[in-house]
Design brief:
Blueprint: E1 6-11, E2 26-34, E3 37-40, E4 43-46, E5 52-55, E6 61-64, E7 71-78, H1 81-89, H2 97-102, E8 104-107, H3 112-130, H4 136-160, H5 171-186, H6 193-199, H7 204-215, H8 219-237, H9 243-249, H10 255-266, H11 270-282
Antiparallel strand pairs: 1-7, 2-5, 2-7, 3-4, 3-6, 5-8
């Protein structure tokens, strides 16, 4: 039976995604303990116990966990459509505004009682999703009510938040964020580490080292991830553009290389990905 939402409570296994990724679902993520630097879009967060990340899913993101470190977290993926009707019925659609306005947001608070409320809701949702003695309809009732409760609790946390971690980044974090931002704006160009280093007035070796240290992957891996994300967007939204044109727009000089690399990373060809996404929109 297909789950209404995807929820996991206090998981400690290695992450399913060891590469940068994006998705269409909204995500609520809670960090419990361990060590993790979380890259989202062009920001790098050094997570602390109790931190909550809200993401619209479309920004590239990836946890970077030091080898042999503990990494315990809970997370929920959901489509806003499954709860919008319920929120409308109680005039509460504003509870989704943080996802739509900020795309990603870090909540760091000292409100231990509300953090405990969030954790308990994660636990209850996980139990319901895994239950075998209740019907799908009953699961849907309970999950939707708990999601509403979770969004209300997060709304209160947003009011008490003591830090959005808006303080200026320093040192290696600042340099890594500058590199990320530059790549995001220029990934369609013929980028090299030399070009990035020269533009940002940084040493070439330092660029490679600091980026790998802070994000967990190489500069060129990130360049390619940005190109694939852009390609997925264009394949879905620019229906009349050829695969070759989209490849060139994303920084791939050779469309054959683009198609091969896309299939290697996404396990589907660009053409089939486009057809799959367009079929999704045509469903009755």
């Amino acid at each position: 039976m297909e789950e209404i939402v995807s929820v996991e409570y206090r998981v400690s296994r290695d992450p399913d995604h060891d590469q940068l990724h994006s998705h269409h679902a909204y995500e609520i993520y809670m960090f419990h303990r361990g060590r993790c630097r979380y890259l989202i879009n062009n920001e790098i967060y050094e997570l602390m116990s109790g931190d909550i990340l809200l993401m619209d899913g479309m920004a590239l993101h990836k946890p970077n966990i030091p080898k042999d470190s503990e990494y315990v977290r809970s997370h929920l993926h959901f489509s806003p459509e499954i709860i919008q009707d319920m929120l409308k019925s109680v005039n509460a659609t504003d509870l989704l505004n943080v996802f739509q306005s900020f795309h990603h947001y870090l909540i760091r608070t000292k409100s231990n009682s509300r953090l405990l409320d969030v954790e308990n809701i994660f636990k209850k949702m996980s139990e319901i999703n895994n239950a075998t003695d209740i019907s799908r309809v009953e699961k849907e009732w309970e999950v939707k009510f708990l999601m509403g409760q979770l969004l209300v609790t997060i709304n209160y946390l947003l009011k008490d938040v003591t830090s959005k971690v808006a303080e200026k980044s320093k040192g290696k974090t600042c340099h890594a964020e500058r590199i990320v931002s530059y790549i995001q704006k220029n990934h369609h160009e013929n980028l090299t580490i030399n070009k990035i280093a020269n533009t940002l007035n940084l040493n070439k070796s330092y660029v490679s080292h600091v980026f790998k240290d802070m994000t967990g992957f190489t500069v060129m891996e990130y360049v390619m991830a940005c190109r694939i994300k852009k390609a997925k967007y264009l394949l879905e939204t620019e229906q009349h553009q050829t695969i070759k044109h989209i490849a060139q727009q994303c920084g791939f000089e050779n469309p054959t290389h683009f198609s091969r690399y896309f299939k290697e990373k996404e396990s589907i060809s660009p053409k089939d990905y486009r057809n799959q996404r367009l079929q999704f929109y045509r469903r009755d």
